[in-house]
Amino acid sequence: SIGSFVSTRLYLQMNGKCDWARCIVLTAGLFPVPVAVVFLWANTVALSHGCTSALPSSTIFTIAGVYALIAFPLAVVGGIVAMKYASHNFNAPTRTSEVVREIPARVSGICIRVFPMYFSGLLPFLTIYYEAHYVFAGMWGHQLYTIFDILLFALVLLIIVASFTSMASLYFQLKREDHRWWWRTFINGGMTGLFIYAYSFYYFFKQSGMSGVVQSSFFFGYMLIISFAFFLMLGSAGFNFNLLFMKHIYSRLKCD
Q1: How many Å apart are CA 29 and CA 7, to the nearest integer?
Q2: pTM for the whole thing?
Q3: Which of 93, 171, 200, 253 has the most CB within a 10 Å radius?
Q4: Predicted pLDDT of residue 236
Q5: Could you report the per-residue pLDDT of 89-136, keeping only the tens digit for each?
Q6: What span, in angstroms and rounded, lies between the C-alpha atoms of 24 and 28?
Q7: 158: closest CA among 185, 118, 131?
Q8: Which pLDDT tens digit goes with each residue over 162-173?
Q9: CA dihedral 96, 102, 105, 108 (to 10 degrees)
């Protein structure tokens, strides 16, 4: 409900051209649908191999019913509340022109786009690289993870570093006179999720000792969901942080 409210409000503030109902449906299914697909795939593999960890069909239908009867209606309610009661004013700090400014041809190279994405994902991942080993061992190994205060500190540090790294990429992008910042800040902020998934391959083949179709399906399937969750979380944090940054720097401009 909260996510649908925030996404619909931002969509309307940025003059979304499609139907606002699509925004609500996309918000409600952007994360649950991939989770359901990966879970059904892993559960099918477990059933085909006779594993006791596989959930029965009755439990799956119960979870689907809870989502259809509770989660999805709450998302619709959040979107409707945002449409009717939230402010649709973007509060731009300066006057804006409806004429799109031409972007110089020199900023269209693929290297200019790939390098910021790479470093925006690598630098935040390095801040949690040491802690990631113990988290993976606690999730997939036989070790107990008990230092949750350090884990919380690492999570907060990850969000801060990812936000500031994406802000640095945005600054250099604006210096190149490229104003298309909104999706790039989201992707740059969420690139750490890709590095987390890449690290899962190293952990599986070098440190986990796991093998077989069932273990591979569960490990890579669930790690894909976890990495996607980090991508969405850090991408949203980077976008909102850079939105505040953009409003701040343009509020300091003196326009006639």
Answers
A1: 13
A2: 0.87
A3: 200
A4: 92
A5: 777 777 776 666 776 666 556 667 788 888 888 999 998 888 888 888
A6: 6
A7: 131
A8: 999 998 888 888
A9: 50
Q: Residue type for 110, please? A: I
Nearest by Cα to 142 from 233, 195, 235, 209 = 209
Rounded to whole angstroms, the Cα distance separating 157 from 131 reads 12
Burial environment of residue 170 by CB neighbours within 10 A (0 to 12, 13 to 18, 19 or more): buried
Q: Which residue, chain included where needed, has tokens 């401009």?
A: 253
